[in-house]
Design brief:
2 copies of one chain form a homodimer.
Chain A lengths: L8 E5 L9 H4 L10 H13 L4 E4 L18 H10 L5 E7 L5 H14 L4 E6 L17 H19 L7 E4 L4 E3 L9 E2 L4 E2 L14 E4 L4 H10 L2 E4 L4 H17 L8 E10 L3 H13 L3 H12 L25 H12 L4 H11 L3 E5 L1 H13 L5 E6 L4 H16 L12 H5 L17
Helix pairs in contact in A: 3-4, 4-5, 5-6, 6-7, 8-11, 9-11, 12-13
Chain lengths: 444, 444
């Protein structure tokens, strides 16, 4: 019997037409249908109908190659705020980069989302590995050690800002005209290597205290940052052995950082393609892969590994000179290269794998088979749940909600109704303390 | 007969419990009711029911004195995105500061709001006069000339980013797998005194091209910036003579800047208090003023003018040493001081005026009387409409929509249904050109 006290976390990681890069060619929708609010309302309501814990948007603040797939991307906090207004319970997690943002602005935006949504927000902390400095006058783009040092301080500032208002700060006494007690609103009073931020924030705490802190890097500095701050980690793990290794490593690091490992949820990504039979699912995955424009992906791969395209022939294994471009951001990429070598894939086969899930595990099968995988990983120390990445939207998410969720419910692994209203309640995370104990930081 | 081709613009400038600083004490609502989404949904839907052109949120990115009035403030783009999801037509204008933001992030956030809302967004450009550098490590806070030089370049960058995607850039050819034509997506390629921003933006143009550019400064540099870029100006004008002076000055400056003056809408603010009779409205205004906590406002005034509080006695006129604290941001303040002197107000009377509308004109009267004012200003060269500032929310807005709008409609001054779906269509503004003519900036 599964441990009923331990909750399976299912997050829907959503991307325009779906995670498969050719999803927009395969889907029934018109190409222009992926950006308007209507698409996201439909998708978010489906996820909420399935009682999923949360939805999640990744983000890179620069235009990616616009020619081959839906390339526009909205600011995640703005997109999630709109979704907040048309949903009731589901968590809302957005990505934002510590390298190109100001802590005060970012803290305020996510706190605003958290307040508007009644405590459903989460911030996925990234340092942005790929150079986007050209949009910000940042040149050269900082190397990983500096990015992570800045990221660490950035999170520290944001937490100070988020926890500044005591939960009892607003008095609201109409008789005396006292709105808030200023001695219960604390400054951040932060003065560090990268930031000087006084505060307080313009936004008080929400029903869940503050937004859930998510982290997505699985490299060395990423693990260190996660162990220190993260309450959920989105990661790419291709095999259950890798998943267990990562799980035990990160939980141990969290314990060593002085935190309760149960308060950090580890959620590997899994790109799902569903079918009524295994053959049907695999045929759909094949059909999607057939729609990948290989010449384009081929050029991108050659550029990424720094080799002339003629030295990376399509129908041969990867040249031995090819390695991940950066020790940090390449961690998912590195896993993919390892897989290519392990399975002796040709470049063509590798490109199909990458197009299907950008390095994440792709699983095509029946609802029963995917439920088996989720149960196996969850019950044998490889994950606390999954970051579900529908290959195509909205149909694969609908398939998951209607096909997989009921099986997990029947097995006693997943909720049959929302028992809480905040993201922390869904994830089983405690409400953090405010800064009321820090007397020397009081203002007013 | 009014000129039917000229459209009266009515924008609702909204602030937590209302513009009157004691509104939260007067209103029926519980103090905690002003920040949740429910309040803003109700207010925005009322404004839309009244066919108003737009709603607007001011913004200062620092906590104002939290003790005497609802002091929390959410990020306007996040708040407006949530409202976008529960409204259909009304414009959505938010304030953001060119002094504490990055152009790429700001351009992206407002473009995201514009896309999600189907072309209903507007950006109110401010340079933020009061020092908020303590939240951003900016010390000293730049003086007005530098702030406006940066602001000018900032708007230039944002416009380049907003117009980068040609309207025909997305091809969406499922057969060939071509999503977008990269030769139709243009970089900003901006390299200036303050910013180096390459682009392109991650977001294409909306149904209205890009968000409407609004400007709120009425000082010298504010007028120059408005003449160059603004499509609407929110201003504080206390008398119709002042209003006509400002109107003709700004329209002339716009013409001189090479633009069509009809494409810049001038909207003075008017704080409204409504009643079934004039006596009832004035009694409500008095009751509100009686709820202002004078000792607190008194302290603030003394601090603002740099005098010890005992040198600013409550029941005497303002000392002659008192002047506006800054030539730029003090413009509204200056108007108020001028009024105090002109009407020989005591400090107590002045504080009641300031508490009622922070320097904006306060008008308490019947719907008929306010409609008369609006018509007079609109038809005699003092404004293109008004920035309606309900003294209390939601009731004063409801009073305006149910009482004043029908009168303006009967007089043929205001729409009886929305004829367009974008903010530009409501305001009667043209869709700006994209950057397709700028061949040398093409990328790809």
């Amino acid at each position: 019997m599964p441990d009923q006290s331990r909750q399976l976390v299912l997050n829907a990681f959503l991307m325009h037409a779906g995670h498969h890069e050719a999803a927009w060619r395969h889907n029934a929708q018109a190409p222009a249908d992926y950006l308007p609010l209507k698409h996201w309302v439909e998708v978010a309501r489906t996820a909420e109908r399935g009682l999923l814990d949360s939805i999640f948007f990744a983000d890179v603040p620069a235009l990616q190659a616009p020619d081959r797939r839906p390339s526009e991307s909205l600011d995640p906090t703005v997109q999630l705020a709109a979704i907040a207004a048309v949903t009731e319970r589901i968590g809302l997690i957005g990505t934002a980069s510590t390298t190109v943002e100001e802590p005060y602005n970012l803290a305020r935006r996510f706190a605003s989302l958290d307040r508007l949504s009644g405590g459903r927000a989460g911030w996925n902390v990234v340092t942005t590995g790929g150079d986007v400095g050209f949009n910000y006058g940042i040149n050269p783009w900082p190397e990983a050690p500096e990015r992570y040092r800045r990221g660490d301080e950035f999170v520290d500032v944001v937490l100070k800002l988020w926890n500044g208002w005591q939960d009892d700060a607003v008095v609201g006494d109409k008789g005396t005209g006292v709105w808030a007690d200023p001695t219960r609103v604390h400054a951040a009073d932060h003065h560090g290597e990268f930031f000087d931020v006084q505060g307080p924030l313009t936004v008080g705490r929400s029903e869940q205290g503050h937004p859930v802190v998510v982290q997505a890097g699985s490299s060395g500095p990423g693990i260190a940052l996660a162990a220190k701050y993260a309450e959920a980690v989105f990661t790419a793990q291709r095999t259950i052995e890798e998943g267990r290794d990562f799980y035990s490593t990160l939980k141990a690091a969290t314990l060593k950082a002085g935190r309760n490992p149960d308060h950090l949820k580890i959620l590997p990504g899994i790109v799902t393609v569903l079918g009524g039979t295994e053959a049907e699912a695999k045929a759909k995955a094949e059909a999607l892969d057939d729609l990948i424009v290989l010449d384009h992906a081929h050029e991108q791969l050659a550029r990424a590994v720094g080799l002339p395209i003629e030295q990376v022939p399509l129908d041969a294994p990867l040249p031995s000179a090819v390695r991940a471009p950066d020790e940090t951001t390449g961690s998912r990429y590195q896993l993919t290269l390892d897989l290519a070598r392990r399975e002796n894939l040709t470049v063509r086969q590798l490109l199909r794998r990458l197009g299907g899930g950008r390095g994440h595990r792709v699983f095509a099968g029946t609802p029963e088979q995917i439920a088996d995988q989720i149960e196996l990983w969850f019950t044998t120390g490889a994950s606390d749940g999954f970051n579900i990445m529908p290959a195509t939207l909205p149909d694969t998410l609908t398939d998951f909600v209607d096909g997989v969720v009921p099986i997990l419910q029947q097995r006693g692994l997943f909720r049959t109704e929302y028992t809480g209203s905040t993201l922390r309640e869904h994830y089983g995370l405690p409400v953090p303390a405010d800064r009321s104990a820090i007397a020397d930081l009081r203002v007013g």
